[in-house]
């Protein structure tokens, strides 16, 4: 809760934030469940939520034991902004439920091997 509070204050000062809603590194092709703290910060500050899909970044780090960074293509796609402050509670909940699928669809479009 303290991190969400600090992030909200940071955003109120006019700073942008990039959040990774899964809350941890993910080595799978499918997304993990999203944490809701970022949604709350956007609601409290009036900031938009911009879905971002990053494809291919998991291939930048070599596996153990070397763990070196290697060259690889990475695609970053920005989706259409969502404005939670302009939505009713029911609309926000529906939109939040759709966000993982929106981002997964963006990632699937750029399936990098």
Low-confidence stretches: none
Please give the share of residues in helix: 25-40%
What is the mean predicted local confidence, pLDDT? Answer: 87
Protein structure class:
mainly alpha
Number of helices: 3
Silhouette: globular
In a few lines, what is going on in this structure?
This protein is mostly helical. The protein has helices spanning 2-12, 37-45, 89-109, and strands spanning 52-55, 75-78.
What does this structure look like?
It contains 3 helices and 2 strands. It has one domain. The chain is globular, with a radius of gyration of 16 Å. The protein has 113 residues and is mostly helical.
Annotation keywords:
113 residues, two-stranded antiparallel ribbon, single chain, mainly alpha
Secondary structure layout plus pairing:
Blueprint: H1 2-12, H2 37-45, E1 52-55, E2 75-78, H3 89-109
Antiparallel strand pairs: 1-2
């Amino acid at each position: 809760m303290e991190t969400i509070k600090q992030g909200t204050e940071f955003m109120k000062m006019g700073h942008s934030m990039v959040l990774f809603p899964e809350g941890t590194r993910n080595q799978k092709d499918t997304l993990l469940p999203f944490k809701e703290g970022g949604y709350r910060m956007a609601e409290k500050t009036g900031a938009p939520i911009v879905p971002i899909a990053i494809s291919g970044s998991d291939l930048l780090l070599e596996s153990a034991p070397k763990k070196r960074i290697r060259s690889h293509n990475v695609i970053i796609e920005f989706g259409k902004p969502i404005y939670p402050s302009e939505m009713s509670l029911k609309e926000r909940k529906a939109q939040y439920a759709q966000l993982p699928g929106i981002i997964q669809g963006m990632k699937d479009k750029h399936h990098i091997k």
